[in-house]
Amino acid sequence: MGNKRNHIIDIYCTNCNTHLYRYLKEGEGKLIKCYTTNILEDDTINLLHCPGCGEEFAREARYHNRPAYKIIQGKVYVRK
Ligand SMILES: [Zn+2]
Q1: How many A from CA of 74 to the centre of ligand 1?
Q2: Minimal CA–CA distance to 68: which of 38, 23, 35?
Q3: Which of 14, 58, 62, 66 has its CA 20 to 30 A from that of 37?
Q4: 29 CA from centroid of ligand 1 (Å)
Q5: Ligand 1 geometric centre to CA of 11 (Å)
Q6: Cα–Cα distance measured from residue 64 to residue 22, given in angstroms and rounded to the nearest whole number
Q7: 21-42: per-residue pLDDT in tens?
Q8: Cβ distance 56 to 74 under 8 Å?
Q9: Is this structure's pTM higher than 0.70?
């Protein structure tokens, strides 16, 4: 935290445009995963499934020994 390359993004379902997460992204580049501790707002009801259309958009994983959700590529898009 406090790193100026961190920025807040919104993550949406590609299939139905439902808002899924507001997320504090660390660094630049394509969204590969979400660290669970950096999810600022979570609009999902069933874990890792879109509340709008039910599509699974991520899988539980760990990165650098931190709990995270690995995004299934193509299932979500990002707006800053
Ligand atoms: Zn959806």
Answers
A1: 12
A2: 35
A3: 14
A4: 23
A5: 11
A6: 21
A7: 999 999 888 999 999 999 999 9
A8: no
A9: yes
